[in-house]
Design a protein that fits this description.
Order of helices and strands: HEEEEHHEEEEEHHEEHHHE
Mean pLDDT: 95
Distance between the termini: 27 Å
Number of strands: 12
Helix content: 25-40%
CATH superfamily: PPM-type phosphatase domain
Shape: globular
Low-confidence stretches: none
Bound molecules: manganese (II) ion
Strand order of the largest sheet: 1-2-12-11-8-9
Oligomer: single chain
Radius of gyration: 17 Å
CATH class: Alpha Beta
CATH topology: Phosphatase 2c, domain 1
Length: about 250
């Protein structure tokens, strides 16, 4: 792949698991993703960096790198669910500290979202910081979705705006938790059934493509690689951001 193409799109795909990150409507791609095979599980993640200069891509890159390192070092096959949860929390915390320590000079104020999915033992354990998302889609319906750490989500929770208003809200990019700036992490545990699709996305996808359309594409019966490509193709004409998806089926 030449340098221009590499700058435009990064991908790592198998039929059942596929990550694609596209620069979309921006000059630089500040999103990062992780697709990592562990002894008896998979670790997937999407991170969306914040900050001027190249700080955003540094932060999102640091987040997925730290996450991968923590799991390669400390994950053991057959590890119990509560230990996986602790390890996910630890990885998000370590990424936060590392980004914060490096946020000096031109990189002052850098941060990133990070949504992580550990898939093993018939379940997905999710850790979320920020407004990238994990979706569990089954039989043409969104069964589960992470809750954003965002101003707009807080307004929604207080009943001050509707879902429709949230999607177009001028302040929808303001996040209330991130790695590097204001730490916080939520954990979820979702049971998996055959045919389920787990989707991780940056807001370049889910702020611009409706959930109805996402579900339609995901439920087409195609493999994970084709679903990921179609989601990116759907977002590109409408997004004003970088677009990243990781699809597991
Ligand atoms: Mn974004």
């Amino acid at each position: 792949m030449n340098e221009k193409a590499e700058k435009t799109v990064r991908a790592l795909c198998f039929p059942f698991l596929c990550g694609i990150s596209h620069v979309g409507a921006r000059e630089n791609n500040e999103d990062s993703f992780l697709v990592l095979k562990l002894a008896d599980a998979y670790l997937l993640a999407v991170a969306d960096g914040l900050g001027g200069h190249n700080a955003g891509e540094v932060a999102s890159g640091m987040a997925v790198k730290t996450l991968g390192e923590v799991f390669l070092e400390e994950y053991r096959a057959g590890m119990q669910a509560y230990l996986v949860r602790l390890l996910l929390k630890k990885a998000h915390e370590m990424a936060h500290s590392r980004i914060k320590e490096n946020a000096t000079g031109e990189r002052e104020g850098m941060g990133t979202t990070l949504v992580t999915a550990f898939i093993g033992g018939g379940r997905a354990v999710i850790a979320n910081t920020g407004d990238s998302r994990a979706y569990l889609i089954r039989d043409g319906t969104i069964i589960e979705r992470t809750k954003d750490h965002s101003l707009v989500q807080e307004l929604l929770d207080r009943g001050e705006i509707t879902e429709e208003e949230a999607r177009r809200h001028p302040m929808r990019n303001i996040i209330t938790k991130s790695l590097g700036i204001d730490f916080g992490v939520d954990l979820y545990e979702w049971g998996l059934k055959p045919g389920d699709v787990l989707l991780l996305s940056s807001d370049g996808l889910h702020d611009y493509v409706s959930e109805e359309r996402i579900v339609e594409i995901v439920s087409s019966g195609k493999d994970a690689g084709e679903i990921a490509k179609e989601l990116i193709e759907e977002a590109l004409p409408v997004t004003r951001d970088n677009v990243t998806v990781v699809v597991w089926k």
